[in-house]
Write the structure tokens for this entry.
Amino acid sequence: MSSKIKKNIPLIDQHDKNFMYGGKFGGNFIPETLKKPIDDLTKLFAKLRKEKKFLKERDYFFQTYVGAPTPFIKLENLTDHLGGAQIYAKVVSEAKGGAHKIYGATVHCMIAKRAGKKYVVGDTGAGYAGKMLSMAAKKFGLKCKIFMGAKDIKRQRPNVEAIRKNGAEIVPVTTGSQTLVDAVSECMRYWVSNCDTTHMCVGSTVGPNIFIKICAWSTAQISRELIKQVQEEFGMIPSKLKLINCVGGGSSAAGFWNEFIDTSAQFIGVEAGGPRNSKLHAAPLTNGSKIGILHGAAQYVIQDKEGQIGSTESISAGLDYPGISPLHCFLKDTKRAKYTSASDEEALRAYQLVSKLENISPSLEPSHAFAEAIKLAPKLKSSEVIIVNSCGDSLKDKDIIKQKLGSYNR
Amino acid sequence: MRSKIAEVFDNCKKIKRPALITYTVAGDNTKNNSLKILNKISKHADILELGFAHNTPIADGGQIQESSHRAIKNGIKLKDVFQIVKKFKKNNPNKPIILMGYFNLIYQNGENNFLKNCKASGVDGLIVVDLPYPENKIFANKCKKKSINFIQLLSPTTSKERIKKIIKDSHDMIYYISMLSTTGGKLKVSPKNILKNYNRIKRINPKKNLVIGFGITNKTISSLKSANGLVVGSLLCKTITNSLKMRQNPVTNLDKVVYNLKNKIL
């Protein structure tokens, strides 16, 4: 049975009574101990998202603290260079801290305050979710602990330093592949032991249903701004519009597309293809992975026949995750969005071209999305519009870029 | 017909002691050794839990993670787990075995296929860590039809209303998690308080067999012996880890540890 997207219902609410999207994706596959804290959080969030005061507070912090709206710009040089569709960028990396993770972090801290919790814990891959949570925690007066894979701690040094500077504790995770997947597991384990005093923030649109909801509800700010900016720029929503976004867990893409669900805009998600000659792609949607259960939710996930979760490899720590948000599984199944992948090499070349021609410097995650835009644009007419979500700033990748390309100029 | 699990509890109640339930991981440290371990410790233990390892466990502490890691590294597959059970049951047909693990492995194996394999190898019960009530209802019913015990968990965070519902739907054994922790955490609640919670649950339906697990060691086990059963897992996994480090035989060391545990609850 194929599922359908319902009109006029927020994407995050299109689940059944078991919190499954399309009857197949998501749910709450959690230990009994977490049942109550997750129920409590689910009820609290349902209340808060309807509460005028809470919404006003959110808007206030997004405007004065995060910095809204983030710029929407035309990439004139890149458009001319490629000759084809007009290319635009939503420069979300201009938000406080340099990436979209600030939206979820801010909202989680607001919720933690309301729940009367004094501690927040979170996972991080590229280090952005951790950096933003540590920043927001500091602002809201909460104590913060960040779980991060030991491999990621080494390769995302600038963000690690930022987390420490914000006064948060970093817990290195040395189990498994020592990347995001292990950081999320360890963070959930920590929450199992400390759920009475601690609020957990999942850094992306993954995990038990409520975390998917909170995250996507927060990043939806991106498309709330964008839909207005698009209407101002074109006087309408262009009939041939492509919204291209990288997907790891899928938080920025969910937010980038949310307000456009009921429009004719095309959605393209770009997964991490990994090194050209590697088989360890972090691309469960592109490569037709089977449905499995990871971190409390059913989703397409890289795994072996037995059900052991597979390892992945990507130049971009933020996309280096074997699973993918149940929301994106649902968007894929309903054919509302298309998914493809870009290799490490393509992402690096895209980074190089964009940062050379334009006054923006996307991190390696959105460079995957730019790689797809660069591939597509020359094939399209100049009446067509591509918007790329430039959701992260390259500063955190300076070590990798220097190593791969010889220099990092900023 | 009473299940073998129910019979164990009947017998233990007669002699007024709790059932001793052990947890080890299938394939730790080798497939052969884990079978040898089961054969040895079954002389002291009343029910044997056998973990089928998963590489992204969200509720296990360090000790069990290490055991699971070893087992997976040794190439353990579900079919090996069933082989171990089958071989064990051949010599110990009346000793109940409970498989414990995460749902994804069952899901990939196919629920019906998995249960067929359980039945064929002689598995008596199942604990699925990440399949809570009420999402587990359909699967629990499938288990019941095959006369396999589906064992539900209760935790200190489980509300009274929920406890009542879970107990009502439970089979022959219910597992009470002693504290907010992953497996093998240090006991951060006093045994007295654990028993207070335990008795509160027990009063809802005194006939149900309720066992306590998480954080139980040779130091704490005797103070909890008024329960229907006590589960020891991480201590056993740790014993294997330490034996390997000291180049000692994990099988004989584990035998000693379980023997000592048993003596503390007699």
